[in-house]
Amino acid sequence: MRHYPSGVTVVTIGAETGPVGFTATSFASLSLAPPLVSFNIAHTSSSIEALRAADSVVIHFLGEHQHHLAHRFSRTAADRFTDRSLWTTLDTGEPVLHGTPIWLRTTVHQLIDLGDHTLAVGLVTRVHDETEESPSAAPLLYYNGRYHRPTALDT
Fold this sequence. Notes:
The protein has a single domain, classed as Pnp Oxidase, Chain A, CATH 2.30.110.10. The chain is built from 2 helices and 12 strands. The chain has helices at residues 48-53, 67-72, and strands at residues 6-7, 9-15, 18-24, 28-31, 36-42, 56-61, 87-89, 95-97, 102-114, 117-129, 141-143, 146-148. A hairpin with a 5-residue loop joins strand 7 and strand 8. It comes from Nocardia halotolerans.
């Protein structure tokens, strides 16, 4: 599957023990009515228990300028939130990453164990879209084990 390009997201959770987050390249839109989205998380992930306990998450669609966040949230869990200048907290408790072109707050609608991963389905409750003010914000892509900037996008 590494030869299939995908957008890069970071999922964040406001857990009782502190903020939790991870990089996910499996984001998908599932339904318009109701607005449902999904992503996958490995059963071996250090974030799986926080997701199982969560009522809500924030899914950040990383821009081409955010390689550093993709790398940070794919490394050791202890390093992900150490730089407080990179994030803030919503009034609902979830961490939000600064400079992310689009993010969605979702309630956890369903968690489905499938093979060695869990499919997380979220009901979208809030959309933050900075691309309306800055349409040049291109997405960060993942392909063949590396992060890429798009070379051309039709606008």
